[in-house]
Amino acid sequence: MIRFAAIVATLLLASASYAVPAQRVDPSQPALRCPEDLILSEDGKFLLTANRGTGTISIVDRDQGKISSEWRIGQSIIDLLPLPGQRLLALDGKANEAILLKQNGDVLDILSRVTLPYSPVKSDVSSDGQQICVSCLWPRKLVSLSITGEQLKLQRELILPFAPRVVLFVPDGQSILAADNFGGRLAIVDANTFTVRHIREFPAHNIRAMALSPDGTKLLFAHQLLNSLAVTNENDIHWGLVMSNELRWVPLDFVMDVEADFYGNGFMHPIGEPGKGGGDPTDIAVIDDLQAVVSMGGTGQVGIGKYEAFGLFRVSVEEHPTAVVVSPEKDVIYVANGFGDSISLVDIDKAETIGRISLGAVREPKLVEQGERLFHNARLSMEGWMSCHSCHTDGHTNGLSSDNLSDRSYGAPKRILSLLGKADTAPFGWLAVSDTLEQQAKSSVKSTMHGRALSDQQASALAAYMKSLPLPPPIDALQATRDMTAVAHGRQIFLRNNCIKCHAPPLYTSPEVYDVGMHDKEFNREFNPPSLRGIGHRDTFFHDARATSLRDVFEVHGHQLAVELTDQQLDDLIQFLRSL
């Protein structure tokens, strides 16, 4: 009996090394797939979508123009990477896995899975197909993977000074570019040693896409740019002064040369014009060396632009386009509609939509899902220049300041607050002007975005979505740097300095406003303290973003310390804050 149990245990352990097979599902069953990515199969016959809402991959037959099959392979598939040999890599954002698959027509087989750090978001592969780079958002990590036979293997990890999203191998195979998910930073990483060579900075936030021209000489970015010197009145919004959306072509050599001004020497397509904004660019597909298409997630459109030609040919598709792919014949653009559960077909020469492919039956969205759609909808704003997501990227913050009447005045820009974990932290805003998230949502659309007034139902949906936004785990846990002794010492320093007066556990905030010895440009002196939970995921601090590190909060600005701390005491206090 013991021998039999041992044999069974051995077989179970052996079977654990094999991947659970993909499960074919019926597309006629109502669901919200929410396609997040779109790729072409290696032979060009099929389109494949990564479905965030269902953990499935849909396979569409291009010739027949309809869904061919749908396969459940995980919990939330958010990224697809085509690989040689009819293989592809899928990222599961909920299960934190990379999944290697083999495609045979409209059939998918799972070859292997590998566990990744928390929150993988994007991937790219070297030109020789030997190295895969995956970005992991909240740990601020890049991961290097290799493929041996049919097995994925995690090789190395690299911690960056920012939270990465888009990653891209440079054609020579020696470098990887990793873009900041929230701000305007770009890391140049040595692909061989997997170390950071340089960090470039440029005026941008919400960098959602990068692409190379076919000749490899130009790098294309899609991003937004918030101007803290503009005010959110109708004039500045109309002229694109508050929030601009950009498709920028820059010389790749200038990007790699750290002494060169790559941003200033690039060419910019404004995604939007007075009267017709282009909120929230989401993806880029290159048509040829001089033409590209960009999707505008906030306005339900794509724009086709030519290098050094002003303006874009804009084409309406469906709600929240997330990804674009150009056909091998260079005549059609395929667009994945994230809230439409569909693919739109756009004729490149005519610049018009010529077809639609459904991914399957669709169910009605729940209240939280309705709120998510409103959160990403730039048409809530005047002329479609911005959505809630434009400033609160992925529900968090771009770390910048905006002069938006949140303090009921113009003249004192305020740092944009994170919405993650805000559900129980009323009142809201730096001056505590909103008692509920519903009230805050209505105020933001009216005063910041200058859109049509939200209905009570819309405000409830937006509030439900914002309440659902979870905090990521503490940064020290994600980076495996937690020192329990230092955290305990830091907590005692936190208590001895009476920091709990304003930042009271367990939410590490309080509902009052306090004079903390600083004022804004309108001479407001009393502010509501933001929660310290998740503070390790922020890069700027105080109402005007005057501090750019936790150390500067105390060393430079001497924030509310009863006594001067030794270097060790300050280190321990910061360790405690990073553990929240």
Which descriptor suits the 3D outline? globular
Alpha carbon gyration radius: 24 Å
Q: Can you tell me the residue ranges where pLDDT is under 50 for at least 5 consecutive residues?
A: 1-18
How are strands sequenced across the largest beta sheet?
Answer: 1-5-4-3-2
Question: Explain this structure to me?
Answer:
The chain contains eleven helices and 35 strands. With 580 residues, the chain is an alpha+beta fold. Among the domains are: 96 residues, Thrombin, subunit H (Beta Barrel); 79 residues, Thrombin, subunit H; 102 residues, Cytochrome c-like domain (Cytochrome Bc1 Complex, Chain D, domain 2); 104 residues, Orthogonal Bundle (Cytochrome Bc1 Complex, Chain D, domain 2), CATH 1.10.760. The strands form ten sheets. The chain has a five-stranded antiparallel β-sheet, with no helix packed on it. A four-stranded antiparallel β-sheet has the order 6-7-8-9, with no helix packed on it. Helix 4 crosses helix 7, helix 6 crosses helix 7 and helix 9 packs across helix 11. The protein is globular. The termini are far apart. The N terminus is likely disordered. InterPro entries: Cyt_c-like_dom, Cyt_c-like_dom_sf, Cytochrome_c_Peroxidase/MauG, Di-haem_cyt_c_peroxidsae, N2O_reductase_N, WD40/YVTN_repeat-like_dom_sf. Keywords: Heme, Iron, Metal-binding, Oxidoreductase, Peroxidase, Signal. Its main location: other.
